[in-house]
């Protein structure tokens, strides 16, 4: 019988240490191999207390068990379940197929774990200390769990395929030599990607990643003072919701639930830029109470994002920019105090169909929101807001928005056009307040009637003329086109001629502005 055949039949290899031999037997029975001492300080895998040979197994022995291990005991399922074990050497399963279930809790790895192009059913590393996880193109049929682990030189999951869930809850990940904490470009996760209360020191890269259900970064802290981006995720696809929201601190940590009253809350915090350009989110992007710390050059970039709902409810960034150019949202849920000030908000081509403000958001602040996004005059944000308000039945507010647009446009015009704009504004508010025309007309008619009652008015034709009526005479001057048979029947001299001419000009101004406003109203209708 060959050595390999003996191993598969259950015989122990000759080169195993006593610790490894016990692990070998635990593997065959599918039981947990626990070398913890019971002292929390000593057993802390992230602490400095040394673990001796009595708690150490070689990585090559672990690889042998996983890739070509012995048959299970009768009636048992072989699996590798380690607790409080130190693994020496590099655990290299590159390109291998691992059939047994793998679970390691509170373990310490001396060197990096290499899993590129390996295939697993389910693998769980919980509260482990790992110098680096190299797992590009790894494939799991089930979960990949890495909660509470610490990775000192980053994680690489580029083009990985996770069959169900990827868990990174409460993990701490430091950057690698390229400046990335987690490199997961092109990764596919079948169900949820949970990274709640994750600490990422470096760039978290999820370019072109796909998540089958939701991506949760509740309570996460992303820090990257070394470069421009802390979260780099253009073309990210999430079938349901991206959560950049608070998490409840305590146990159990239940994903997706609202923390109970009195629970200590940990917000999502990001020190460094966020790039979500061209992302697709099936339900929502939720920024409830998110806190952003940017430099002047950094930004929260949501260019061309598409989602049914954007919940923009975070803290106002003190520096940096928020960019929504080209984004498409059905419902915008926002708060007045969440948006940055003038020059730091860009919304060119930003489309939304409904506005649901949380808390007071008066129209003057909403107009300030639009003005903050348009350093130079751009009619589109005003027209979009007016359309949304009109669709919600707020016709008066919609008219105020369009009036604000005309006033903003006026500042870009040459002097003559600007003066004409002021005239339209003062008289009928660019046609958006047509009632003003009637008021002006009534005032002018009354004043001119009183004035012409004292005017010298010899008739043009002494033999045939109507009776002098200063009220009809004034109205005939004020109304363009309409002839009441008074204006041409009387001669005026001196200042009375100038008064008549002024009334004719003012009448034409009122009529023209009313006509322009009516045209705009008909065009919108």
TrEMBL record:
Name of the featured protein: Oxidoreductase
Domain of life of the organism encoding this protein: Bacteria
Keywords annotated in UniProt: Membrane, Transmembrane, Transmembrane helix
Transmembrane segments: 498-522
The organism of origin for this protein: Streptomyces brasiliensis
Organism phylogeny: Bacteria, Bacillati, Actinomycetota, Actinomycetes, Kitasatosporales
